[in-house]
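Annotated sample (chain length 254).
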Amino acid sequence: MTFSASDPTGGAGLQADLLAVSALGGHALTVVTGLTAQNTQGVLRFEPTTADWVAAQLDALLTDSLQPCAFKAGVLGSQHAVDALLGVKARWPGVPLVVDPVRASGRGDGFGAEALFEYLKTALFPVVDVLTPNWPEAQAFTGQSQPEAAAQALLGMGCKAVLLKGEHLPGGQVVNSLYTINAAPVVWPCERLPGQYHGSGCTLASALATLLALGQPLEHATGLALDYTWHTLAHGFDVGEGQAIPDRLWRAKP
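Output written by the structure step:
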């Protein structure tokens, strides 16, 4: 079950979630948390879904005896969407929750006020199983200047695991690091690809949630999700004048 905003380019948001989940053998239940008018260059308008619409979507799903195997959250956009997610997590506490804590688009267009992000820290992070921030997001949520200190601070807020993405950190390679409580970080270096991509964070978080839903242990699921996401970027294509679109279905093509 994925909570995120819609993206008319098909590159990020719910559309990215659907493609990634399907490509890895899952089926996505979707709760629309916002509407965007955006293209590959940036977000022109964002409108959070009203509380009654979030509730109606969940009511429709939950009255149909559907059983989610994992939750994934991206752009939530409002406190009532956070509360709705907390409600289903409380209903199925053992179901893993993967959160991509999106604060803004790649161009910097915001997806909420600071009060919303503070609410994520205090209300949502304590029930998150895996948080997948990039470095600017980790910095913004913690105020730390070093990656490991930021990851430890996020663990201190209640997250059970933090997958800190390394694309914004310097270096010839991208190094992604998985932090868990009282354990050394596990790192995955990979080739740094040229260009910029629209929806890479959505792809990774959805892939990880799907693999956890299929019963893979966290470390193994993380490695598989990172490998899958890297290949979606390597097979990325252009549909507009801005960022490239990851090819979530690259495996199914000749």
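Annotation: The mean pLDDT is 94.
Annotation: Strands lie at 2-6, 30-39, 42-48, 71-73, 97-99, 130-131, 161-164, 173-180, 186-191.
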